[in-house]
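ESCALATION

Customer reports they have been waiting on this structure for their group meeting. Please prioritize. Original submission:
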Amino acid sequence: EGVNFEELERDFQDLFEALKEYNETGSKSILKFIEIQIHRCFLQPEIIHLLLIKPTSPEVLPELNIKHLKIGNQIWMAENLDLDRFRNGDFIPEACSDEEWNKAFDDKEAVWCYYNYDDSNSQKFGKLYNWFAVTDSRGLAPKGWKIPASNDWEILLAGGRNSVKANREISEKLRSRDGWDVVGNGSQGLDEFGFGMLPAGSRQNGFFYGKNQESFFWSSTQLHPLRSVIYNFHISGMCTLNWPKEYGFSVRCIKE
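Update from on-call: job pushed to the front of the queue and completed.
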């Protein structure tokens, strides 16, 4: 049987009110540490996530302890984005199947997924987001951060290009020192700046591609109504692509 969400929400609301009442008359501390929210997985109402979070305003994403690094005059996140909420606290739906991902694109709605829809990929690689999540007015990037435009990426890349083998050099300098499937003349990265780029792969044309082999990152720059600028890194170098918005890529934010 499917889950009766109306009944479930009433039960949790009763629990929340009981905790609130006890907090006001008893320990004075429980509500500082517990808040329960119910989140329906996109298009799969039988799946729920129960999140235990430290309460703040329910409309605002809490301040985050974000790993970051400075390269030249830029400050970048030191790991891929792994958030399931916008800056204002609204949840971003998770796609758990091709059907859900495609429907989000057709409806022009934000969505994210794990590589191969497998949450074991999250801790290492973060989430893959669609274009509508990247550009949503509620803000995918945390407060004080932004999705890098193509000119932000070009400034980063220019700092590591010193020869005719520029694209290979900057890829080596940004990529992590392990985790890459090395073939042919390829190599692990040098991670010269501490960027720690991992081969998180992507979602393209209805399938997942490139885990342990390539990294793909969104920029906020659109060159065509159906395409945007993407940055792709691999063991042989890197390239700039003008690719469809229905794909799923990683996000690295830059300080505003």
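Sent to customer with the following note: The chain is about 20% helix and 25% strand.
Escalation resolved.
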